[in-house]
## 1
Amino acid sequence: MSNGESKEETSAQHKCMRCSATSQSRALISVEFKGQSQWICAACLPYFIHGG
Ligand SMILES: [Zn+2]
């Protein structure tokens, strides 16, 4: 287990896996896809759910 989790990490910028929107402009939702953690924005979530 790591013990440095209180460190601030400003470099991590999550992006929507479909349209590359960041959390600056859209709400991002964390998903697990093909065994990896990904992010999807609120606008793309319907497409993701329906497999588009
Ligand atoms: Zn998106």
## 2
Amino acid sequence: MKQREDNTVISIRSLSKSYAGPEGKTIIHALSGCSLDIAEGSFTVFAGKSGCGKTTLLKLIAGLEQPDSGAVEFSTGQDGATVPKLGFMFQDLRLLPWLSVEQNLALAFPPPKGKAEKAAVRNEITRVLALTGLAGRAASLPRELSGGMAQRAALARCLCRNPAILLLDEPLSSLDAVTRLHLRNELEKLRQRPGLTVILVTHDIEEAVFFGDRIFLMNEGKPDAEVPIPLKRPRNYRSAEFQEYCRKIEDTLILQAAPTVQ
Ligand SMILES: Nc1ncnc2c1ncn2[C@@H]1O[C@H](COP(=O)(O)OP(=O)(O)OP(=O)(O)O)[C@@H](O)[C@H]1O
Ligand SMILES: [Mg+2]
């Protein structure tokens, strides 16, 4: 951790990560020399074909996996003391099946001491459940939820404790159209919270253009193209310039997917 000189909050330096392939016979290079800086308060989107290293990158940022080489550095404010609080919404949700929604959320907090702390945790859980439209499902077990509800419960858990950095791995992928729109709007409100830094992984091009200050298109373990989106907010899906950015990203993704001629 180092003191901030500019507004970079996460510095990703030449990150590489490999895994052993099936039966240990091959090596999978999930990330290969990935480098970029992420500014405090920015919304950064990563897109790219399946297997190009997006989830691996989020896990390395969160410290859940260690890189083979390279580093992730966090910068702090003037006091230099606070470690940024991270909220991670996993692609596979990771709700504990034997705990209710409320109990799953409670795990995001350090064990509360005394009545006042317990009440504060309860209030915070009530707040994020309301925010994600799950107010009536606090007592439900994950298996009693629909796919979309489980996804919202996972989002609710990562919003607990007001994280400074949100890592969202395809957070809206299995929602019905109306809920998706509702949560997009909630995410848009969250985005406006001063200083909140969001990193979103998505396969949905409109979602990427709606949210991203910058979109990185990953290919073979590193960002292959960067598309800044200077459109005014809130963004209008139907505007010609919005659709123009969508087309540009789609074209780049198609080019990336095309087989290279040797
Ligand atoms: N724990 C692991 N063990 C072995 N291989 C892994 C592991 N985690 C990831 N991989 C491999 O690393 C590569 C990158 O995986 P990653 O999950 O980062 O892709 P992704 O871009 O998130 O894909 P998707 O869009 O399908 O979620 C893939 O080939 C994957 O099989
Ligand atoms: Mg993934």
## 3
Amino acid sequence: MYVCLCHSVTDRDIHQAVVNGADTLRELSNQLKVATCCGRCASCARDVLQEAQAMCAKPCNKQSCVKEMQLS
Ligand code: FES
């Protein structure tokens, strides 16, 4: 689903950013420009960030990472 319409950012983009190390809304904004225009997506982006972080909470190795399988 689209989270940020201004910059065409999806939940998958946010999950991938978390996999790549983003752990704050500011880092998402730096990487994806989410919430840097009208700002209406900030709350939803934060929710998706937290969801992605919860999925990342368990240690995993990259080859069997559930997140990456869902993203591919
Ligand atoms: S919808 Fe994300 S900045 Fe406007």
